[in-house]
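User: Could you check the structure of this?
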Amino acid sequence: MWRAVMAIVLGVALAGAVLAHVVFAQNPVGGAPTMPGQDTFGAIAEIVRILEADPATDWTKVDVERLRQHLIAMNEVMLRAAVSRTPVSGGLVMEITGTGRTEQAIRAMVVPHAFELDRMPEWSAKADPIAGGVRLTVIAKKPDEAKLVARIRGLDFAGLITEGAHHQPHHLAMARGIALSGHTH
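Assistant: Sure, the predicted structure tokens are below.
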């Protein structure tokens, strides 16, 4: 658990440092605020900056609202979903559930993320619909590797959902009006 918390803290600190660099490059006045005040705002601001800097951006296809809705869904899953976990041979089974908008977000996000996890060389993953959400199963491809099994269990749902580093390219593609393979959201 502490590893997942530490990974989140380090990720937030790194994102803050990158964002501070971007803000200072745009506004070099000392003592000026550097943080956007809200993570969704900051993520969208970064994507808008990238789109505006790219002369090839096709503004007729840009859909920043779609990205905003996706970020809202990410927030629902990360902050409001209930997760129950069961260690199994070689990995972990997690039941991610919620109601209303949270349940919709779980179904929209966890299923395609299982696809991304399954593409990774170390483990296999699958998502199955259950009442109120999704059952995510992540198993080490070499279940006798105790460190890998411990990593899966230590990452748990919150850590596993960050694996694969596909989120940022997905967000940019989404804002550009393009979908990544395997994603329906």
